[in-house]
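User: Predict the full complex structure for these chains.
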Amino acid sequence: MKRILSYLLIILTLIVYSCENYLDTYPGDKYDDATIWKNTDLIDSYVYGIYGGIPYPHTWLTNASLVDESVPIQNDGIMDRVLQSSMTAEEPGPFVPNWAACMDGWWWDYVYSNIRACNLFFNKIEIADNTKAEYKEQLKGEVHFLRGYMYFLLMAQYGGVPLIDRVYNIGEDYNIPRNTFEETVNFIISDLDAALENDRLNSQTDKTRATRGAVFALKSRVLLYAASDLFHNTSVWAPGYSYPELIGYMGGNRSELYQKAKAAAEAAMNLGYTLYNSNPDTEENFQELFLKMTSSEQILITRLDKVNTYWAMDWIAWVSGAPTYGGWGLNQITGNLANAFENIDGTKFNFAVQIADPFTNRDPRFNATILHHGSPWYLNLNGELTPDTIDITTGTGVDYNKGTTTGYYLKKFISPTENDYYYGTPQPQPYVQIRYAEVLLNYAEACLGLGDEGGAKQALNQIRQRAGMPDIPVGESGQELLNRYRNERRVELALETQRYFDVRRWMIAPEAYAEAYGVEYDESGYHEVVFEQRHWDNRNYLVPIKYEEMQKNTALIQNPGY
Amino acid sequence: MKINVLQLWLATIILSVYGFPLAEISSAEDIHLTGSGQDRIQQDQITITGMVRDENGAGLPGVYVLEKGTTKGAITDEKGAYTVTVESSKSVLVFSFMGYNSEEIMVEGRTIIDISLEPDISVIEEVVLVGYGTQKKTTLTGSVSKVNGTEIAKSPAMNVTNSMAGTIPGIVAVGQSGEPGEDYSTLFIRGRSTLNNNAPLIVVDGVPNRSLERIDPSTIESITVLKDASGAIYGSQAANGVILVTTKRGSAEKMVYSASFTSGWSRPTRIPEMTNSVEYAKLANEVNYYDNRPPMYDSAAIAAYGSGSDPWKYPNTDWFKEVLKPWSLQYNGNITMSGGTDKLRSFISVSARNQDGFFVNSASKYQQYDLRANIDNKINEYIDLSVDASMRIEQRSSPTAWAPTIFLNLINALPMQVANWPNGLPGPPLDPTSQNNPVVQATPEAGLSEGENYVFNMNAKLLVKIPGIEGLTFTSTGAIDRGLNYTKFFSKHYTLYEWDGMTYDENNAPVLVGDGYGPSALRQTQNINKEYLVNSFFTYQRTLNVHYLNVVAGMEIIQDNYNWFTAERRNFANNFPAELNFGNEDEQYASGSNPGTNRWQNYFGRVNYSFRDKYIADFVWRYQGSSKFAPETRWGFFPGISLAYRVSAERFWRNSPLGEIFPSLKFRTSWGKTGNDLIPPYQFFSLYEQSWRNYITGDGTSHAVYGESLAGNSHAQWEEANQFNVGTDMGWFDGKLTFTIDFFNNLRTKILITQQASIPTMTGTAGKLPQINLGKVRNHGIDFDLRWRDKKGDIDYSAGFNGLWAQNKVLFFDEAEGSLEWQKQTGYPMESGIYYEAIGIFKTAEDLDKYPHLAVARPGDVIFKDVSGDGIIDGDDMTRVYKNTVPTLTGGLTFTVAYKGFDFYTLFQGQSGAVRYLPFTGSKGGSNYLKTYYDDRWTEQNTDAKYPRTFNRNDEYWVSSDKPNTFWLWKTDFVRLKNIEIGYTLPQAIAKKAGLTNVRIHVGAMNLITWTPDMKDFDPELEPKGDGFTGQGYPLQKTLTAGMSIGF
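Assistant: Here is the predicted structure of the two-chain assembly.
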């Protein structure tokens, strides 16, 4: 009797004793603060995560389908909110999470989440005592660039936004008001300047991360946006709005902004970048520019690898590629964009006049960007590629593979030899986020803003020469030259997420949101058709802050018209 | 932890079993039996002989015959005869036998005493399981419901949770799906009380967190539900109620063998009727008419669809008919062995069950094999050792396309699309992006997801009666559970056939062109769960005169450990087997593992005292620590107290007029504090998680990415439940009629919620917010159970009626600062959705002028109420509808009749108060319309229609996902004939001829008839999955069964 009790007591005591730290368990698949910030590799991993927040525009539907570059085939009403100017704060179309995913890198929640990641980095980097001081400095520079990039994304969509530069925790007052547009621009510029402080980035050459060139290029873009019409004419497009300082400058000095934009572009131009020009065939050269893994034109790139990323470059072939190739053609090029490509002699293209043979003798970039009726391409049958041509002839049966909506498919970015999209090998090319051509265009636009037409032409002609186009006529100037510049930017940077914002900041949106054209072909030849009628309302210049956010933070002020 | 607790526990067992000096205790023989031989014969001793008979006059063997006040006596022999010697002629003999009333007879000089014993109804008194012990039902203080395994076994449901609806008062079982292997009901005890996980704690044979749903029903002895504070002994896991499952054990009788086999034929309880080609063409034309476009189908085409003369060009496909079988087979078989001796008793059961899916050549199937062995070993008079082992193999196979999505496709597929061409080949894909045709997707042609789940549950229990202290026992349990889930998801290339509509071969037959679809890939997933438990407790139980005392105290530790990983390769050649090594090694992907460990450390106890079985008090407690919380907050004390008063045991009551009205009456009340820790662990850490995508730097290296996943809340704790219950038990006609009713009022505080409604996302916290103890919910209601059981001649019959009404109310919720009054959640039932209020249909153009409306509105559209009253319909007009998918009123009605060899059982189950949001399908060229919609839609001719004008899903504001509105909110009230079974047991004589002891045949049905006033097209219990589109769910089963069981 006593023995059994004593056995039991001994065992029970042992159990209790052994259980002293019994309840201390740790998550097996996550790290805590103490682990992350003591390990340089993990700090890198953390910063890469913020880089991952730089948007990649070609997901399901693309940003180009929100403007007059392409047409979203599976519209489902989401894209129409922009195309028909019917966005509201409750239903901001593509600017909140939804299946269309075309702006997912731009979503308010997502961008602010990355901004928090930057702020948290600045909080914690000081405790990283296992990381070399020099490297810490470089990382700080990179994260300043990233935070600047994130605020640029917000500025372009919303105007002035709350500038959050610290980590918010639970239990705080969250009624944070919006900063003015000017403060927002200045904040971005000061972040970009901080990125360059103390020569932090001087030894950083990896183009998937922030380099000095990337900082200057982004700076020129931000300042150019800030100098644009939209942010200096708020009384024109938002008359009666009580808070114009949130959406534009109050008597800002545009020359000064252009001056700074030009200086930033020049700083980038002095870093040795060149326009890609390796293939004497100008059409193939322009196509290759987006397929090569490295080139001296790249300033900031995103490398995508199918094994680890979902929205990889091959998605664009799958989602937007021509059906003969095995794609779905969900984003089809508009006639508007197709028609913007000049003739090879530098004259304007005119569909009505050239209707018999609209696709020959065009800007070489036309055939490098767009697949049209008769374009040589490939037929993908069970994974085998055979040479074929695009056929948009109407009435060729029920096979949806032959059907087409606008008559133009995407060719830019799509490698003609990497057909095994989806579960196949990844296309090896990166997505070029910032390239030298944009810097030259930014420079040209700043020159035009300052009245320096010579400087502008000199930069534009570099781009035209590389494209295989004649120089701008010597006598061209004024509005004509401005229009030429705008068209040049449109075709050179087509489908690179520039047009959506360009038509807004130039305030030419009403013409961009009108008729969307397509082309049909039958036995009687080509016909240009109005595919759909789009509609513009000035409130569409900026995106509304979503309804839920307005309810949560009562200090917020909504953008005009919503 | 350095020392393995389980090993320590085993050491305890070995030491106490073998280290126990058996000699020390073999002393206390209580009864000196004297047979015919006597040791000493004294002067005035008398020898008495006699017979003991039962109520039918047959001799009763084994009856104790004792001389009162001594330990002398005898036991009756096989014929019921006895001989006993008593001290004097004034002695009193006590005859006692289990299950019979004891009799005391004065000897009064007689030497022959024959008596008959009367069966004692009260002795067959029910004993009810409570935490770490049992209690007599009469003196039970808590609110506890119980259902016997025999009743569970009446249902042909493959899943026990589906058998619980309507049978246990206080349980809400919400059906989900009928898919083999995925068919389960979500259980809520007394409805829902928290904004978080409402799952009750499941304890099987004393081991928590085992699975209830897949347990073999034929091994269940009983299921007991602790509904109130009596669960407080389970502490921080008990707030949602506790379900205790006991499995069968062998008795000390000769071995009994039995076998049973039941087969069933099932089909969906309800599938919607869709429009045919002609009807659909009309609708599509109407859409174009409203859009000012030319008709999509001309009259010649409509006529061709109608005549059906050219099935190649003008098909009229009934997709449900093409893809679903009329009946799908299921069966289950079971063999049990039960019995033993005093020393060794065993219960062994082997079962197999098989269930086929609804599809033709179904990829969806389920098989289950069960083995259970419960062994009880009486080592000596003081030590009992029980060892239970159960093993279960679950084999699931399902289509690679999600089954609910296949049903969605069946609804979306147009009647003019081809399922199978007239020559038998499968038709083209439904649409270019999904690239599938359900005729193929539902079969193994497109690949198969095959899962095997192995479950091993082992536990051993040591029970030691401590000698020298009467009523003191020591109980210790150790359990090891393992779950291993292994899934192979193999998607294959498949071929679909298209016809261009104009190419014919030389025999004038259409030329079909086959094209390959679908990626080929194999993904293997492994998921392992390990759990162990060790507990030890002392029980002291003593009756002293009128006092009864039961004290329990003990400790327990539990560990739960899980881990999974997946591996994948792609690009398999078409005929390669589903093994990873045949995939392309350049395309292999392993997504990481997800290990985790939860631990609990507990000290618990109970004090139960009753005075004359009249006044009863019960106090339970648990002091519990959980590894899910920070060291500062992880320990908590959970007490529960309950009191009962058996008024009818009072003499004054029995003699009063009230006593005649209420011959049996007990009042109960309880209060307790319990917790709910069903939340993701480690809310107190700031955590960084690996992102789903890597980052590739310029040199091509792929880097793992870590980002903040949780902004920690170091104060996070379990939720607290304050449970109050008051109830009464009544009985009439000697227990033939019983009635139990309970009122409960539960206040759940410190509910862990994330403040996503109030913290703006500009703080960057979207998806990273920790849970905070903020929410507050009150849940109150009534449950009752009314039963009648009687025997009239050969007819043994019973009826039962039980029900639950539970209503919850959110007392504090995280609301946005600027949220509108009519959209607030606080003060109303939780999880109520926000909708536009549909108040009718614009019948005419004049109607448009009467109501504020959206600019796009036109006659035939749905009218939204201008709730904010500003003349504009916008987000401000959405209003909270205080209903959700969980019913407020549920109940069941049972009848049983047994007459001679026949037995009959039926269960009706019903619910009310829940809603389901289901907008109709349909769009031009995209998805089919429901026939009910076609029949009563608004047209310019039919302006009094029930449904609005023909629409394109998502184009019209009232069927767009942007604008959920009450037009599509359906009441899911129903009453259904849940189970019905008729059985016949062959007369013993006939069975014996076949060498059997028992033969029973039965036929039955499950979900045979369902009445739903509002929801006509779908089963009211079908839970829409995924995006919640109409019909995206695998329908529930209606099953007809026939079976046989034999004993030998």
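Residues 5-18 of chain B form the longest helix (14 residues).
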